[in-house]
């Protein structure tokens, strides 16, 4: 078994403020740390998907870490997929962020409508929570079963991983 850690953080940029306000959340961003390899994978505004040293968020005031043990093969698959995405320069999904905002403000049908309205413009792009959902489904194939990965906010991902219901009891 190897360990991966989900890092939930909030920065101080205008986008962090916008995300936490729209999602009514404490978290504006999520990254995944591959513990033994000391690597962090995340999707960042303006940079897309990147791999970098795992200590980036050490010392941040607003952060929460949830760790999980995964079989070595799954860990290697998750890290391998992260490396492939990083090598292909997967861009950041700005339009996907917009769809998440529609979902959070107006409900799931509005988010789904936004994804349909932006066809082809969200495919091949990733936001932080979508990236983590797709990677974690390699460990738990039924994770958020039936839910569109592009519409998962960092807060929703945190609640599901922590086993904490939202205001609607989900």
Query: Strand sequence of the main sheet, in spatial order?
Result: 4-3-2-1-5
Q: Uncertain spans, ≥5 residues at pLDDT below 50?
A: none
Largest sheet: 5 strands, antiparallel
Q: Kindly report the oligomeric state of this protein.
A: single chain
Average predicted local confidence, pLDDT: 87
Any idea what the shape is?
Answer: globular
User: Cα-atom Rg, whole angstroms?
Assistant: 15 Å
The CATH architecture is: Alpha-Beta Complex
What is the element layout, followed by pairings?
Layout: E1 2-9, H1 14-22, E2 29-34, E3 39-44, E4 48-53, E5 63-70, H2 72-87, H3 94-106, H4 108-117, H5 128-136, H6 154-162
Antiparallel strand pairs: 1-2, 1-5, 2-3, 3-4
What does this structure look like?
This protein is of the alpha+beta class. The chain has one domain: endopeptidase fold (from Nostoc punctiforme). It is 39% helix and 20% strand. The protein has six helices and five strands. A five-stranded antiparallel beta sheet has the order 4-3-2-1-5, with helices on one face. A hairpin with a 3-residue loop joins strand 3 and strand 4. Helix 3 packs antiparallel against helix 4.
Can you tag this structure with a few keywords?
6 helices, globular, alpha+beta, five-stranded antiparallel sheet, single chain, 170 residues, endopeptidase fold (from Nostoc punctiforme)
């Amino acid at each position: 078994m190897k360990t991966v850690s989900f890092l939930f953080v909030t920065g101080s940029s205008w986008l962090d403020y916008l995300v936490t306000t729209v999602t009514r959340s404490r978290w504006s961003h999520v990254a995944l740390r591959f513990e033994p390899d000391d690597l962090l994978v995340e999707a960042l505004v303006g940079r897309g998907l990147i791999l970098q040293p795992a200590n980036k968020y050490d010392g941040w005031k607003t952060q929460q870490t949830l760790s999980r043990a995964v079989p070595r093969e799954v860990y290697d698959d998750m890290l391998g997929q992260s490396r492939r995405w990083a090598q292909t320069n997967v861009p950041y999904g700005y339009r996907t962020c917009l769809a998440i905002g529609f979902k959070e403000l107006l409900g799931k049908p509005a988010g789904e409508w936004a994804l349909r309205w932006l066809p082809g413009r969200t495919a091949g792009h990733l936001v932080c929570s979508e990236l983590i959902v797709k990677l974690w489904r390699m460990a738990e194939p039924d994770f958020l079963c039936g839910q569109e990965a592009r519409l998962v906010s960092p807060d929703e991902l945190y609640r599901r991983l922590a086993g904490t219901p939202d205001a609607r009891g989900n």
